[in-house]
Write a structure and sequence with these properties.
Chain B: It is found in: Endomembrane system; Membrane. The complex is a heterodimer of chains A (479) and B (652). Chain A is mostly helical. Chain A contains 19 helices and 2 strands. Chain B has 652 residues and is mainly alpha-helical. In chain B, a hairpin with a 2-residue loop joins β1 and β2. The N and C termini of chain B lie far apart (68 Å). The chains are: A mainly alpha (479), B mainly alpha (652).
């Protein structure tokens, strides 16, 4: 075996290096009280990782087709690394508390290793490597959710997460075994070829595909595989929730699209039908849940389920435009959602851990700047022009509508109606901040410079990604 | 020559707007004003430099100045049709750069004195920068869509500046009126753009250079034959007329002129910049920009432009004769003069070759020339009016009279501009107006004589205004109470500069060498007959005005007033156009259309959506139990969901 092939896996190799450096740094400095340099170091390393992924654009294949990467996957890796960078910047506030500071290194290592898993998952060329990547992302994720383990909520959330994750992995492996049973290989290319040639029992293949889909549907939290989302999002530390809602979801969505389009291309007719059902269910049911939700993190969980439905719309397009639209949507979703979570997190820190929507009553009077940024982010999530969210929704809808069938139009139409509902519940928060008044409005507070930096990056993204066409062009060029 | 620096011309005012808009309130008045003026000064220098380089670079082999596009990037790609943003330099856009930057700089300097100590001084300068940026962007647009973007931006900045004194009810009403009327017209503009874009697959102005014409043949992209034939047939004329409606709104052509007189509620320097020199000529500029298309595809429809222009010119001149508010007189005079430019464009006749001999497209050059000269002397008149208002604290002519003793500089510059607008040689207005009237005679003698008559009216009402302010009956009571004084240097210097331009630019440069319909060098030569006629008529009108209005006692004016009270009243009330609008909107549209729609909206539309919202809410409530928190349930749902999906897929 030629070990130099590892050098071809540049983003993964550098991420591994980051992981080792962080681990060593943490190990060497363990026990010291003040580690002011630690967060900047990790952020700088992550920034380097973003740049490396950005520069790396070629399609690479290594280890006999086990590892395959395409320009569009590299774009996605860059986006996810950038999102992780924002999470890391923003996490400092939370990690500087006395009860969390000793876990700082742990948090960074876990985050980086989940990202590594996701990268592996995205560039797998074989179902087994894909599965290993998935688990590599999943297991540390459970640890992250449980990071606050002495708090009951956090532990419960982690337990629910790991239990359902195990279950879904089981179902998925079951599906993959069906697939193996009917076509006799697990290489993506070969499966696609054999399926196209009509090898194997169609019923078995479809069953395998649906079960496989349910495993990733779990990660993306599509209805009906979404039940863990609300409990886990609510219980996990807020920063982890933010990470979970954007990075993990984005990676899984991209992988799912790549596999559906590449491996299951012969079954396109079947999986488009499946997506119609799942998308309509996800968007509608999540919206109905979100309307009645007053706990903000739980609310964001349902919001993220419905956003997942929108992301899946891009897959319906089954085209290069769809790939672009999905990556672009994830990018915009990363900045908007991270802005919201940054605000939630900083409010939580100043509010004794309460994340109820009522806590935001009169927020504008005491903290106008934060309220304003939160409003921008929510507007972007709801898709109000001229913020980036409107453009990303537009491209998603366009990609789906270009598929051309009546059912696709119907699904796009239902999704459009649902944006109205989503606007309603996003505006509920805005209403609480601006219009509702309260004697117990949060006192005015100053946020630390890391939160400010994260918010600045996110706001710049919300404001500029839409109007600067170069961002879209960059993604479109790769896909 | 590298024109890559041209983007600074747009960027600097934009930055100034951002800086002053965000941080202006933390600065002193002086600093804010200095930032605005300095940045505009640099823009002016850059504009002059651009013009210098552009016009000295020489003509190409075909005798025209090259059309340059230093920047053009695709902003929104939409398949075959793209929205681009860029910068286009050709003779008219470079000429407009000069006009806008010059007048804007003068207004910036002038406002130091005029707005001294006003609350919101910084905001004022921020808006001025925004306006300048938008107007510059409008003229250098590379495509009709970009033009529309900036077109709306100038509309917004005009709205903001008219409503600058927002505590005053009249200012708020005027700004709303201006915005709504121009927006209404812009709707047609947008429809025109979309029609045009859909059928020709292009928003670009690049047709100007290489248009290929055949009867119904495809001039743009010959892929879609059906569309191209439609475009060559009736679509382009329709689109152009729709765009003209938008231009007529911005340029205050009858019957969309009603906003401009009210817009005088804004600060006077703003009136000089926006409502006399630059924004209101956007409609003229738009037609000039689309001129190759008009000439090729819609020569018959050009007569619409002529008729609208002639009527507006006459109407506005008639109203101007009876107004007593000096800014209103100037406003109607502006409407009338813009109509002159419109007529000049409209009287151009089709035909590519032999243009220069038979004057067929002289109007194009004349219109642009008049745009240029008018911008200078009208800005000078408005700024002069500002000095007067500054001195007597009133817009009404009754508060003035005999001011020549108190304000010598204002008096002389005002007189020069009045002579220019009346068409007396050697002032600039004579040359440009003469070209317009010559072009009109070439089109039809009737139009020529009518325009000559309106030119005579122009001379009459301008000198009525002049004598009313500087001679005539002095309001001694008011002046004793508060002696008028000459304006400070910051205000008089722009007046002097503008009047020097007015004196010289008619004869010192040959405008036809820069701008002409075919792009070739065109030597302006005066048509003796027309020149003499219009001169004589102007002199007679001025003499008449002198006879009636110069003296302390004005028996003739009083007699006329007594003899024709109804006519005077009607003209003073602008022939009741505002009342007509009020009647149509309030009595007809509001009652017959809006009220039923409002009822439908309130009961049917709202009811439906209330029901949907209620349903969604109830649905959310009834589903809550589903999310039980029990992991075992989750697993069951997970598995049954997967199985159900499989079954569904296998069944369909």
């Amino acid at each position: 075996m030629n070990y130099s092939q590892f050098l071809n896996m540049i983003p993964e190799a550098t991420l591994m290096a980051v992981l080792v450096i962080v681990f060593v740094a943490d190990f060497v400095s363990a026990g010291r009280k003040e580690r002011r340099w630690f967060n900047p170091l990790v952020c700088l390393l992550m920034l380097a990782q973003v740049l490396v992924s950005f520069v790396q654009t070629d399609a690479v294949s290594a280890f006999g087709g086990m590892y395959v990467t395409s320009p569009s996957a590299n774009v996605m890796k860059t986006i996810l690394a950038a999102g992780t960078l924002i999470v890391l910047i923003q996490s400092r506030n939370w990690l500087s508390r006395p009860d969390t500071s000793f876990k700082e290194g742990e948090f960074y290592e876990l985050v980086v290793s989940t990202l590594l898993g996701m990268n592996m998952m995205m560039s797998a060329g074989h179902f087994l490597l894909f599965f290993i990547g998935l688990e590599m992302a999943s297991v540390p994720m459970a640890c992250l959710v449980a990071l606050d383990k002495y708090r009951h909520h956090s532990a419960e959330a982690a337990a629910k997460f790991i239990l359902t994750a195990t279950f879904s992995s089981g179902v998925m492996l079951y599906g993959i075994s069906f697939l193996y049973g009917s076509v006799g290989t697990l290489y993506f290319d070969d499966v696609a070829k054999l399926l196209a040639a009509g090898t194997g029992n169609l019923t078995m293949c479809i069953m395998g595909m649906v079960f496989f889909f349910s495993g990733l549907g779990f990660k993306i939290s599509l209805v009906p595989f979404h039940f863990w989302t609300a409990d886990t999002y609510q219980g996990a530390p807020t920063t982890v929730t933010g990470y979970l809602s954007v990075i993990s979801k984005g990676a899984a969505a991209f992988t799912l699209m790549a596999i559906l389009m590449k491996v299951f291309a012969p079954l396109t007719e079947y999986w488009t039908n499946m997506l119609y059902i799942v998308i309509v269910l996800s968007i509608t049911i999540a919206n109905l849940f979100a309307i009645r939700q007053s706990e903000l993190k739980r609310f964001m969980a349902f919001s993220s389920i419905s956003q997942a439905g929108y992301i899946m719309l891009a897959v319906i397009g089954n085209s290069a435009a769809g790939v672009t639209a999905l990556s672009y949507y994830v990018l915009v979703y990363v900045v908007a959602n991270m802005a919201v979570f940054s605000v939630i997190s900083v409010v939580e820190e100043n509010n004794g851990g309460v994340t109820d929507m009522d806590a935001y009553n009169g927020f504008y009077r005491t903290n106008p700047k934060l309220a304003f940024l939160m409003t921008l982010a929510l507007f972007s999530l709801a898709g109000i022009p001229p913020f980036a969210g409107m453009f990303s929704k537009f491209f998603i809808f366009m990609a789906a509508a270009q598929q051309g069938s009546a059912a696709a139009y119907a699904v796009v139409f239902i999704a459009l109606i649902n944006t109205v509902i989503s606007l309603y519940y996003y505006l509920l928060i805005v209403k609480a901040m601006y219009i509702k008044d309260s004697d117990k409005a949060l006192p005015t507070f100053k946020s630390d410079c890391n939160t400010k930096l994260a918010l600045a990056i996110c706001t710049a993204g919300i404001a500029l990604f839409g109007v600067c066409s170069c961002v879209y062009d960059w993604i479109a060029m790769a896909s | 020559m590298d024109y890559s620096f041209v983007f600074l011309i747009l960027l600097l005012p934009a930055l100034t707007f951002v800086v002053l808009g965000l941080a202006g309130m933390k600065m002193s008045h002086k600093v804010a004003g200095l930032i605005g003026t300095t940045s505009l000064g640099i823009v002016t220098v850059l504009s002059y430099y651009t013009a210098f380089c552009y016009f000295t670079a020489g003509r190409g082999a075909d005798g025209t100045f090259a059309t340059l596009v230093p920047y053009n990037f695709t902003w929104l790609p939409l398949g075959a049709l793209n929205f681009d943003l860029g910068i286009l330099l050709d003779p008219i856009s470079v000429m407009m750069l000069i006009v806008i930057s010059t007048v804007s700089l003068m207004v910036h300097i002038y406002s130091f004195g005029y707005m001294h100590g006003e609350k919101g001084f910084q905001r004022y300068y921020a808006f001025l920068s925004l306006f300048t940026m938008s107007m510059l962007g409008l003229v250098v647009a590379t495509n009709i869509f970009q033009m529309y973007l900036f077109w709306e931006l100038v509309g917004v900045s005009s709205y903001l500046l008219i409503g600058f004194y927002y505590p005053l009810h009249a200012a708020v009403a005027a700004s709303k009126k201006a915005f709504i009327v121009t927006r209404f017209a812009d709707m047609f503009f947008l429809i025109g753009i979309l029609l045009f874009g859909y059928y020709t697959n292009s928003f670009s102005f690049s047709f100007a250079g290489d248009i290929v014409m055949g009867n119904g043949a495809a001039p743009f992209i010959p892929v879609d034959v059906v569309k191209a034939v439609a475009a060559g047939g009736f679509i382009i004329p329709t689109a152009l007329v729709l765009m003209f409606i938008g231009g007529a709104g911005k340029s205050a052509m009858f019957p969309l002129h009603i906003w401009l007189p009210d817009a005088m509620e804004g600060p006077t320097p703003v009136s000089a910049l926006i409502h006399a020199a630059t924004m209101v000529v956007a409609g003229v500029f738009q037609i000039a920009r689309m001129f190759p298309l008009w000439i090729e595809y819609a020569p018959e429809q050009m007569s619409i432009v002529v008729y609208v222009g002639v009527f507006t010119a006459f109407y506005a001149a008639a109203v101007a004769c009876a107004q007593s508010d000096i800014k209103r007189v100037l406003a109607f005079s502006t409407i009338s003069q813009i109509a002159f430019m419109m007529v000049a464009l409209g009287v151009c006749l089709p035909g590519h070759e032999a243009v220069l001999d038979n004057h067929a497209q002289l109007g194009y050059m004349a219109s642009m020339f008049h745009l240029f000269t008018h911008a200078m002397f009208k800005a000078c008149l408005f700024l002069g009016a500002g000095c007067i208002i500054h001195a007597v604290h009133s817009n009404e002519m009754s508060a003035m009279g005999g001011l020549r003793k108190y304000m010598p500089v204002t008096h002389i510059t005002f007189l020069i501009s009045c002579l220019a607008i009346s068409g007396i040689p050697p002032f600039s207005g004579f040359f440009s107006k003469d070209e317009i009237i010559t072009a009109c005679f070439a089109y039809s003698p009737v139009v020529g004589w009518i325009m000559t008559g309106i030119a005579a009216m122009t001379a009459f009402y301008m000198f009525r205004l002049y004598y009313g302010i500087f001679w005539g009956t002095e309001n001694k009571e008011l002046h004793a109470h508060h002696t008028p004084h000459e304006a400070p240097l910051t205000m008089t210097v722009p007046l002097i500069i503008l009047s020097v331009i007015t004196i010289t630019c008619g004869w010192a440069v040959n405008f036809g060498s820069f701008v002409s319909a075919s792009g070739q060098d065109y030597q302006i030569h005066l048509d003796t007959q027309v020149a003499v006629t219009s001169c004589v008529i102007a002199v007679i009108s001025i003499a008449l005005a002198t006879y009636i209005y110069k003296g302390e006692k004005q028996p003739v004016a009083d007699m006329l007033y007594r003899r024709f009270p109804k006519l005077h009243r009607a003209a003073y009330k602008r022939f009741y156009m505002d009342e007509v609008y009020m009647f149509v909107t309030h009595k007809i549209i509001f009652r017959l259309v809006s009220t039923p729609i409002a009822w439908f909206d309130r009961h049917v539309v709202d009811g439906t959506f209330d029901f949907l919202a209620w349903g969604a809410n109830e649905g959310g409530e009834s589903m809550r139990g589903w999310q039980s928190g029990d992991v075992r349930h989750y697993a069951v749902w997970f598995l049954s969901g997967a199985v159900a999906l499989t079954l569904v897929l296998l069944c369909i």
